[in-house]
Specification:
Elements: H1 3-6, E1 13-25, E2 31-38, E3 42-53, E4 59-69, E5 73-84, E6 89-101, E7 107-117, E8 122-132
Antiparallel strand pairs: 1-2, 1-8, 2-3, 3-4, 4-5, 5-6, 6-7, 7-8
């Protein structure tokens, strides 16, 4: 259980750090899901809506949605990724604007950095989630 979320005071921010192991899952675009470990335990899913090339042929910008699910509730928001498809390195930023359960009325953001290997359809990364209560 994520006690610090359940005990958050009004207008208080709380940070959670840990690791995320992801895998590619079937969908109509590109989707991943994985396990969050560390200070926040749960699952994360990503669904790409758009993939935009950049001036560098190996780097793309992806946008989509991220959903974080824990035993206590769910956070959902818009996601933006800068990804080097050749070496797999990426930097990801999500803005959460809706939540259920213990996340109801909260906002937040999450940064994720790591690698995602398309050939193996798996990724390893670290996350920092910052929630703010209403």
């Amino acid at each position: 259980m994520n006690q610090s979320i359940l005990q958050q005071e009004p207008n208080e921010s709380t940070d959670f750090e840990g690791e995320l192991a992801t895998k590619l899952v079937p969908c109509d675009t590109m989707c991943t899901e994985g396990k969050l470990t560390g200070e926040l335990v749960g699952e994360l899913s990503f669904r790409m809506k758009e993939r935009t090339p950049t001036s560098h042929p190996d780097v793309v910008i992806c946008s989509g949605t991220v959903t974080v699910r824990t035993a206590e509730g769910t956070l959902s928001g818009s996601d933006h990724v800068v990804w080097n498809v050749t070496n797999g390195e990426f930097a990801d930023y999500t803005v959460f604007d809706s939540g259920t359960g213990c996340f109801e009325g909260m906002t937040g953001s999450m940064t994720i950095t790591g690698t995602f290997d398309l050939a193996n359809a798996t990724g390893q990364s670290k996350y920092l989630l910052r929630t703010k209560s209403a």
